[in-house]
């Protein structure tokens, strides 16, 4: 009984099972869904959401939410894009290809810091502030870019290469999985996940994020610097959105003031919620979030393969979110029941 | 040699209410010092000021002769001052071990979390306190007692020179209390200082060297424990001899059955609860924090209904699944936690008072301002609620007056059965006396009253019978004549029950 | 009633930040410099069906003489466009038409004769794959009116012209003009049809996405991508050989033609009737086709390594 | 106020009351009103074509559907919940309505079924939020995706036409005011009275202020919340069908992004996102503010970019102001 319970409480197990079942189901209809090749496609669908989800997860664990990530992504991507586009006219020389990476991250961090300041300084609810900056930052993106798209010819080929070339490539003539490779952005995304894990599970500040979300009232009594932690999580969320921004430029080869990053927040929050991060703060694991992202990736990759029209996609996403919520709910019910048992 | 702590002229105000005035107190190194006083005397507030939770409105604190500005819990921690809060604070989603070390000032933000050592250390202290909990399990779901033990362990682990324990023993069993005292003595031997806050004189006598007595936010006296008899202490605590201010409202004549509870059970919370309350009768319900009293009350009132058992109101068997039904049946429930379950902080006092009787103020659906105003006004007058305007948000009122307003809310429903859960908790002494009078009057007016209280004198003085709960069961039903603190305590504490049996 | 040449013309694009409209706008601006009219470009932030309505309302209120619009929806704007025309404003659909609702605009300016687009694309694809093998189409949305007319024409050509008898159209998929969606659809095509040799993507977003998939898989020698694309977006793919050739028209000329047409109509020098012919600088003589549709050029322009650098849009 | 005289035995423990004029004037609605007036000035400075009541009314019809839903949403937020799905609900019920009538069902029946579907969507939200006690923000993010998706499945991405005679609610004029605006005003008055002067309204505030205390006081908070979700559902459906009549056709992306507009209206009106505070008047004014600001900028051909910035800034400024005001009345 108890074993079952603890297994059930392992939210990750649940999602892993969901993913496995889903893939098998699709695989029976379309065998090519279970190929390495397909895995690569799925992996290539996930990096941006994965990176964004790591930041969002920290924010939600700290009992906040960040709706502005999409706009931060767009803005920071645009800043880098414009650097690449105009560096010659501005500085008279071409900047090295990698400059966009730190730049985007820095810009994103700055925007996130802005969110944090508003929230912490004026004691405002994060959901409203970020709803405001969602529109504010998007507008700023239009203004700085004069509503002009940065075309792929301006994005350095090395940047674009990040989503094609890779460190580990199995030689073409190799019997199994010939030519299979995992592009850089996927590796970067998982790298971010690992770092997030180390940060949240193995540093004092990381644990303080959980503590803050778990009991905001008691946090200061335990000497937790609430202001600092809040600012930190929002800054990180911004920085990661910035990273996702440059990754967007790499993956899609352009930066567009209106498309780039719009709707990102919904995908990411969906992934995080599916991953079992509790909106009430204090609860959530990197593994769960990663699995949540992968589940969404599998769904996205399976639809066209099954010939399901794109029009059905968002309905399916919606259902997935609600199902995840239902599972979460039942698991928590178990939790509460066991709690009562403890008392008598 | 300068005293470890020298507090001078400490005063504290909350929203213009002075809850501490000019308290001077000196603590020697290596003493166990008791703080005594009625509920709301200001003990916890003083403790919190020492621990940097509150800043004093006036006054200074010197450590070893040097003025120290204890600006925050972190500072207190650095100065070696640790507070065990009256209500244990915990981070339910973090493991027991983490709760134990959280807030250590040592280490950079990015310092590694030493999970292994952490667990080892936690186990060590848990063993020391003789508690058997898996330190890797999350805090959520621990009993209040266990949570308290973790708090204590935390204090020990922090190796501070001043440890303040605010009613640490309230939820503990005598055995646990003994272990705690053993440790306390050893700490004293190591030259550490302990402030021990408790309502239990015998405990104070067991381990304390000196006592300081608070009343209405003033320090009344500091004495060696040996120089004071219990009678002296109580006199100092409440200003006048006990019997005078707790007059027994004997004359209420006890009428027919109003509330009958039969085998009420909510698995895991309480079981087989049976008792009856008659019109005009005041039945006390005593026990330790976490005994399940509130949950029983909540079950009767339909907030968290029991799974089995029957409830009869005025002889009729009823099923209550929602408070609105309970109210319809003439039940009323003044909850234990005012802020959480009682008041609508930001809404006007008049709204708060009339909340339970909507249809009386809005015959036909539309609210009649004048009608509401008149009813609220009448309650304010009768209960002597002190406020500036009926439109004032109730949050701006003092605790006592908030509590009166909640009582007023329920009196408007003209209840036959009135359940009061810790009605005088955190209420200052003057208002408290008024409450005792009111409760007496209500009984005299033929209402049946179930009084849940952790304050033994209160139970003994006011109640015609005292029921005692322990670990979710009723362990005693003591008629007024035989009700003594000892009897109630021994029934409230689990071990004692086994001994008796 | 002649309004003179200093009339006010506004062009309402699908959405801001859409590179395609920069060059149309360029055409309008230059033409208005010549003519002497006032030109303004406005566009909503998103290309959602109703997002243009407040802008049309606003232009009516501002009393412009000409509203040129790239409609986000074939019918959502019918009511407000009628209001505009009732106020005597000349309403032109420029680049994209109100298919099925032509009565709600005065005239429609398209870059090319859309009936020729399908065949042109098929011929280009054929020339790339030696007129044999399995091909697929990656389109915009399932209901995109222009793409659907072209796709219909492609099917017809493939079926009827013996020249293409060895070319087999195996699938038509829709990327909804989103890079993400288009990419996954393209990937799915490649895994579902292993011996695919060509993909036609008659949409700028789709063709770029398809090219990118081919590029990242390094299968340019095996799968040929072509379609309708913007030189600015396709330049790299052409240069690295991922895409041999693709087609489009000159958006610039659409703006140019629209401005001159408006000037003529407003000043009575052009009769907005089917069959009428008139001269436009640099474009020569233009004929108003049925449903008052006119084109800037007959055939598509083909871009390849030889000429890609001559185009800056 | 002699009624209060006996109480004015102000004890040391009672804080002095705030003067009456403060109670009346220092409220978020005042700020909204001021912003509104400023907006009108700014608008007329920006463009000579702006200050034309008919134009403003006509422009309001473009936002009237959102505004109408925002009024109900205000009550939901005051009750301590939130619903982000109404815009998607509008689209789905409009699609259902349009699809049914396009497939030969008589318009009145189709309308009724459209409204019923809206009610059902409200019920789904209520089920997840009340019965399963899940946070409404997440639930409705889920249902917003789901409803929009279902609309897309029903309509594909082609648009469904409605018959000519059904087109043009916004062209119907009552005393020179377009019908949708009239409906908005009437609904505002009705809901204003309900929220301000009835037990139902009173209890909505009490639930939003302290749900636990409300239940202890015998208030059926679950019932009331369910009622509110259902109300939003059906009103959203109504708004969706009204939009169909205004546009003459229905697509799945009808009212896309409307949820933000609605929340924006409530917030600009001083409704407190965590419940317990806010008024219909505030939302009423905020709706006009929003229309004035956006149309003012559009008619002046201000970049949509700038409009986004202004709206975002407005929201943040107003929430800061609201917070200051409330914390002031809080003490
Ligand atoms: N945060 C606060 N805001 C307002 N009043 C407060 C606050 N904390 C305490 N009080 C009031 O200060 C007085 C003293 O409270 P305190 O908790 O110090 O009493 P205590 O001696 O600890 O009582 P107990 O024995 O019940 O713990 C009480 O009247 C209480 O209502
Ligand atoms: N093991 C536990 N886990 C969670 N909550 C608990 C536990 N034990 C007690 N509580 C909560 O602590 C509060 C006090 O416990 P309860 O009300 O059951 O007993 P009580 O005798 O009424 O305590 P009190 O003296 O505080 O009134 C209640 O809100 C109860 O739900
Ligand atoms: Mg205390
Ligand atoms: Mg209790």
Could you explain how this protein is built, in words?
The complex is a heterotetramer of chains A (344), B (501), C (313) and D (331). Chain A is mostly helical. Helix content of chain A is 70%, strand content 0%. Chain B contains 20 helices and 20 strands. Chain B has a six-stranded mixed sheet with strand order 6-7-8-3-9-10, sandwiched between helices. A six-stranded mixed sheet of chain B has the order 16-17-18-13-19-20, sandwiched between helices. In chain B, strands 2-1-4-5 form a four-stranded antiparallel sheet, with helices on one face. Helices cover 36% and strands 25% of the residues of chain B. With 501 residues, chain B is of the alpha/beta class. The longest helix of chain B is centred in the middle third of the chain and has 16 residues, at 174-189. With 313 residues, chain C is α/β, with parallel strands linked by helices. Chain C has helices at residues 19-35, 53-62, 78-86, 114-129, 145-160, 179-192, 204-217, 231-239, 251-266; strands at 8-12, 38-42, 66-69, 90-94, 107-110, 133-139, 167-174, 196-201, 224-227, 245-248, 277-280, 284-287, 293-295, 301-304. In chain C, strands 2-1-3-4-5-13 form a six-stranded parallel sheet, with helices on both faces. In chain C, strands 7-6-8-9 form a four-stranded parallel sheet, with helices on both faces. In chain C, strands 10-14 form a two-stranded antiparallel sheet. The two termini of chain C are 37 Å apart. The mean pLDDT of chain C is 90. At the A-D interface, helix 7, helix 12 and helix 14 of A face helix 6, helix 11 and helix 13 of D. One adenosine-5'-triphosphate binds at residues 14, 19, 37, 39-45, 86, 399, 426, 428 of chain B. One adenosine-5'-triphosphate is lined by residues 14, 19, 37, 39-45, 86, 399, 426, 428 of chain B.
